[in-house]
Specification:
By secondary structure, this protein is mostly beta strands. The chain is 11% helix and 49% strand.
Amino acid sequence: MIKRELTVGLISLALICSAKAGPGQGIHSGPWTLNPYADVSGTYDSNVGKTSTHEKEDVFADSTVGLRAGYSSYMLEFNGLGFLSQRCYSDTTENNFGAGGDLLRAKYGNRDGVEIEVDQAFRRVEDTDRYGNEAAVGGVSPDSVLDVSSLSRRDINQAGI
């Protein structure tokens, strides 16, 4: 048991020591690149209910945490993104919501031969789809198919090869 824990500890230490990063460049370890990120913003909304009469103002905070990951070798390339978001209103708490999703893309092959690319994306959104432009499947951006600025709760599933 102690030998296994020591081995796991040494492997973890080796990965940490072999990883390197500079500002804005992500964390690199061999063919892997990891880019964790967080975003917090505050917004004043003069008409939370989007009504023409009886307008109600409020302030809300948006927070997002996510991770971008990439792997690149001669014949294989992988890119992934996962995120979770939360919106919290100050007064109209019934409008609070969460969002999340993933975007995955894998490509096998090279330009000299056959390339096979597989794309998958899932996003649960209630406001503007912030990641819609990154989810092009088979070269078709969802901007051309979906109303990415729609302000309604929806699940967006995409897949392509």
